[in-house]
Specification:
May be involved in both secretory and endocytic intracellular trafficking in the endosomal/prevacuolar compartments. Its main location: membrane. By secondary structure, this protein is mainly α. The protein is 68% helix and 4% strand. The strands form two sheets. The chain has a two-stranded antiparallel sheet with strand order 1-2. A two-stranded antiparallel ribbon has the order 3-4. The two termini are 24 Å apart.
Length: 209
Amino acid sequence: MDWGNVTAEDLIDALREVDWSSPPRPLPEFFSRFTVPRSYAKWNSRLKCNLYYYRTNYFIMIVIILGLGFLRRPVAILAAMLTALSIAFLNDSFAGTFSEKVTRTVRQFSPHLAAKMRPPLTPVIRGRPSAKRTIHICGRPRWVFVFIFSSASFTLWYVSCGLLTVLWALAIALLATILHASFRTPNLKARLNTFREEFRAVWRNYSEL
């Protein structure tokens, strides 16, 4: 893939749809080799490639840095967890996995309630869905959960008065992520992983026809 031709919108869509359950890359690989990009085009391509390839590592790093900032404000930890969940619900894979696990747990205690938590069926015309598939969580549209968790997290942020501390920690975490993604030289594994993800996406679209 020519990452130089990938727009920010394409990268965000890819991160939203990709499976985030993959384990993080090993630390020796994560801190292996750093070089200064020779041009803006190479820096732009390297940044997007590393953000996609090391996405799990960056997520864990941001969570650790934010956790260090929360040590003096325990209520802010709960607010951060709710905020993280509201953001994670925007990822299709996470939303589907979360809904499936919750429904499976509820089914053990109340099969009737679990049946109501199933997503509605999408009408199919000539073998294809009649409209774009809408993501549901526990039988409700995704935006309902995003709104509830975002509202709850905003309330806790206001009560804990730790928003400024979190903003500083978040700024440091994002700066560390950008610096690493800018100077970490993409290796062969990153390129092979990109081609593998592209093949899976094409195969998934082909199987849905």
